[in-house]
Design goal:
The complex is a heterodimer of chains A (387) and B (254). By secondary structure, chain A is α/β, with parallel strands linked by helices. Helices cover 46% and strands 13% of the residues of chain A. Chain A has a 9-stranded parallel beta sheet, sandwiched between helices. Chain A starts with a strand and ends with a helix. Chain B has 254 residues and is an alpha/beta fold. Helix content of chain B is 30%, strand content 20%. An 8-stranded mixed beta sheet of chain B has the order 1-2-4-3-5-6-7-8, sandwiched between helices. The longest helix of chain B is centred in the C-terminal third of the chain and has 18 residues. The radius of gyration of chain B is 17 Å and the shape is globular. Classes of the chains: A alpha/beta (387), B alpha/beta (254).
Chain lengths: 387, 254
């Protein structure tokens, strides 16, 4: 019986934007890299890595990294490197690389990388196979039109490399492996726990359902997230898989302070930075040709992709999983959402936007000391509700 | 205005729409990467030719065929369309992406091409005169680059943001990306263009901001017998901008 679980997920933003940055419609893909200062980036890495290590010390169950390219939004174009850096420092928590889009690497190489991390961490690795945002396809030499077929094939190759004794082979539409024979093999058998992370495309849900993977929707409304979780359960059942409550990581932008007012006062500017000056990009970059179906394009255009570059605290906190307030309030919100969403697995974004180090440390400490114990003590009822 | 008949044909499993009018030798027009500006110019050619204006699979009114992965699949599509129509030989006029397609068709099936007109053709890598990458341009950047005189295409663009228009362009760019995302030119063209022994015309709008008219020199060097005509005061959509360009094609083909 799985217990309630808390991850600390970091986006690792590069926050030192130039004074004129509002002139740029997108901070992704074509935002000039002359604005990247390695000195400042080094400082940020020091802070961010220490926050991740602290999360482990405070009792978070996992730390989470992901991958983006050509953007100040994230300093993690190669999350496996950061995972390798963190493994010796993180003693107990699971290491989640959620993850490298398989389309952006040779699949055998990704299978090897992840197997290395799993062995290095003695079986603490968890991974996600994202398709990658539209923006990644402007930054990498991979055709977005065939991205979904390639994604599927890449995952097949990785799973084969991990589960079939080598040497074996793979002859696909995109890759030919005459000798698929990954050294090392993963520590966990048959392989580390796998998730699909996405923004709710029907094709992606179907893939998670078919493979029996966990699924997490990011940047969708609470209502939509619930529909997607239900959809995943329904489609997984059709493939003979039962979705466990711990397989549905629920992303929550979380900030805790002494009082509700103080929390909001301390947090809002960083949330605003995140939406306005982190996610800001253009419809063109969000949807390269062929990346989504015409139906999805129309559906998303109707929503206006409101999340990428605009900010209204009330609208956002009504629509998304944003928990800001005293420990009691945040624990209640998260507990409530866990019950509604049928999950025991919370992916806490405890650092956001241009949040200074001290606030992140304070926030993580309060979450670990005041929120997590409250929810762990209620975990039996959460667990029952989830089931 | 000339009245074109709308025909539908099924070619190897994909349903396409073709507009046809006029009588005489067949003239097959292969359109470019975007069809929003229409084919009004083609009316002039119906005075002397049986003009055939099909939408390629994945464009305009034709259906999609995601199994067509490269330009050769489109060459084969037109081999099969002509077979379906019972047409042995055509005058082939290709514009932009359609110029690349026409060149490839003529290289592989030159016995079926009476005369060949390539208008601002894509497909060749000219390091000194690189084309604009239409796949990298935003929907706002592209239209002004298409013409010398913006008024020419203005009536074809929506006044207000129009979701159907956006979706139509996205669909056509998806088809283009399937063909050109990884390599926006054809490395093999220089090797094979010498096979174009039929009468060939290279026609360009002098102020073409998509595929510079200076590329005509490279094309000409690879097809020495070709005629070259550069039309002043016109951009990439030279047929839409300059009636004399349309007349030049008619004169060349006659």
């Amino acid at each position: 019986m799985s217990d309630v679980r808390f991850n600390f997920m970091h986006f690792m933003p590069y926050v030192h934007l130039p004074a004129n940055h509002k002139e740029f419609k997108s901070l992704w893909v074509n935002f000039p890299n002359k604005y990247y200062d390695p000195e400042k980036a080094h400082e940020l890495y020091q802070q961010y890595l220490s926050q991740l290590v602290l999360a482990d010390q405070l009792g978070f169950d996992a730390i989470v990294l992901n991958e983006h390219h050509n953007t100040s939004y994230s300093m993690m174009p190669a999350p496996s490197l950061l995972a390798a850096t963190l493994i010796p420092q993180i003693k107990n928590a699971k290491i989640c690389v959620w993850g490298t889009p398989p389309n952006l690497e040779y699949p055998n190489r990704l299978a090897e990388e992840y197997a290395m991390l799993d062995v290095l961490s003695k079986g603490r690795l968890e991974i996600a196979f994202p398709l990658g945002t539209g923006m990644e396809y402007w930054a990498n030499p991979v055709n977005p039109v065939t991205a979904r077929e390639r994604h599927r094939e890449s995952i097949d190759i990785i799973l084969k490399a991990w589960t079939v004794d080598g040497p074996t082979s793979y002859y696909g539409d995109f890759y030919t492996y005459r000798f698929l024979n990954s050294w090392p093999r993963p520590y966990q058998r048959p392989h580390p726990p796998c998730y699909i992370v996405g923004t709710g495309s029907p094709e992606t849900i179907e893939l998670a359902a078919e493979l029996g993977f966990g699924y997490s929707a990011v940047f969708v409304s609470r209502q939509r997230a619930l529909e997607l979780n239900n959809r995943l359960r329904e489609r997984s059942a059709a493939y003979g898989h039962e979705v466990r409550p711990d397989q549905l990581p629920l992303g929550v932008l979380t900030y805790v302070a002494e009082t509700d007012e103080q929390a909001q006062r301390e947090f809002v500017e960083h949330l605003q930075f995140f939406f306005e000056d982190g996610l800001r990009t253009t419809p063109q970059f969000l949807a390269p040709p062929g990346y989504i179906s015409i139906e999805q394009l129309k559906a998303r255009a109707a929503l206006g992709d409101k999340l990428h570059g605009s900010f209204d605290f009330k609208t956002l906190s009504d629509a998304l999983f944003i928990a800001v307030g005293s420990a009691e309030k945040v624990a209640n919100l998260i507990g409530e959402w866990g019950k509604t969403m049928g999950t025991t697995h919370f992916n806490i974004n405890g650092h956001l936007g241009n949040m200074p180090h001290w606030k992140a440390v304070k926030n993580l400490s309060l979450i670990a000391e005041e929120v997590m114990p409250r929810l762990r003590s209620r975990s039996a009822s959460l667990q029952r509700a989830a089931e | 205005m000339v009245r074109f008949e709308r025909e539908t044909h099924e070619v190897n499993g994909v349903k396409i729409v073709m507009y046809a009018a006029g009588s005489g030798q067949p003239l097959l027009f292969l359109h470019g990467a975007g069809t929003f500006h229409g084919f009004e110019f083609a009316g002039k050619w119906t005075e002397n030719f049986r003009v055939l204006v099909p939408y390629h699979p994945g464009f305009g009114e034709s259906d999609d065929d995601p199994t067509m992965l490269d330009m050769h699949d489109y060459v084969m599509h037109y081999v099969e369309l002509l077979d379906t129509l019972g047409i042995e030989k055509v005058n082939l006029v290709g514009f932009s992406l359609g110029g690349y397609l026409a060149a490839r068709f003529a290289i592989e099936h030159r016995e079926r091409v009476i005369k060949l007109a390539l208008i601002g053709p894509a497909g060749l890598r000219d390091k000194d005169n690189p084309p604009a990458d239409v796949l990298a341009l935003s929907p706002e950047q592209l239209p002004p680059l298409l013409v010398s005189n913006f008024d020419v295409i203005k009536p074809h663009l929506p006044v207000q943001p129009d979701l159907d228009f956006i979706a139509d362009r996205y669909r056509e760019m998806t088809t283009v990306a399937r063909l050109l995302w990884e390599k926006p030119w054809d490395r093999k063209l220089p090797r094979h263009l010498h096979r174009l022994k039929m009468p060939t015309l290279l026609l360009w709008g002098e102020e073409d901001k998509i595929i510079p008219s200076a590329q005509a020199k490279l094309w000409k060097s690879l097809i020495p017998a070709a005629d070259v005509e550069i039309v002043g005061g016109a951009g990439h959509l030279v047929l839409d901008e300059k009636p004399e360009a349309v007349t030049s094609i008619a004169r060349f083909l006659s």
